[in-house]
Amino acid sequence: MDRTLLASTDWQATSACRHEDPELFFPIGETGPSLLQIGEAKTVCRTCPVIEPCLQWALETHELHGVWGGTSEGDRRLLRLRAARAAKRRGAVDA
Ligand code: SF4
Fold first, then answer.
1. Ligand 1, atom nearest to 58 Cα
2. What is the C-alpha to C-alpha distance for residues 87 and 61, in angstroms, rounded to an integer?
3. I need a surface site. Which of 9, 53, 55, 87 has the fewest CB within 10 A?
4. Measured between alpha carbons, how far is 43 from 12 in angstroms, rounded to an integer?
5. What is the DSSP letter of 7?
6. Do residues 58 and 71 lie in contact, with contact meaning Cβ atoms separated by under 8 Å?
7. 69 C-alpha to center of ligand 1: Å?
């Protein structure tokens, strides 16, 4: 992971969402109509040249709200859970 990159948010200067309505990326909830909004936001993310640093930033800063790096709040919870389980398994193997 590139710590220098994560130390700043310079990557936002070239983001695909910089000309989008910010509210698109902050749906209220993850059910019903919000699913369509999340899908629209993710569609923008898929065209974004900085999707990877954006996701890394969201995970490192434990960003709880909104769509970042092509992931919803629930997607990131799942990624963090999987990472924690993998770390736990590695710890069990190393012990
Ligand atoms: S990945 Fe998505 S939220 Fe992140 S900068 Fe790009 S368009 Fe914006």
1. 4
2. 19
3. 87
4. 17
5. H
6. yes
7. 5
One-letter amino acid identity for 73? E
* Residue 7: predicted pLDDT: 53
- Ligand 1 centroid to Cα of residue 48, in Å, is 6
Measured between alpha carbons, how far is 15 from 59 in angstroms, rounded to an integer? 17
Other C-beta atoms within 10 Å of 90: how many? 10
| Amino acid letter, 94 | D
CB 38 within 8 A of CB 67: yes
Q: What are 71's two structure tokens?
A: 């992931």
SS3 category, 13: helix
- 71 DSSP β-pair partners: 68
Helices (H), the chain: 3-7, 33-46, 51-60, 73-94
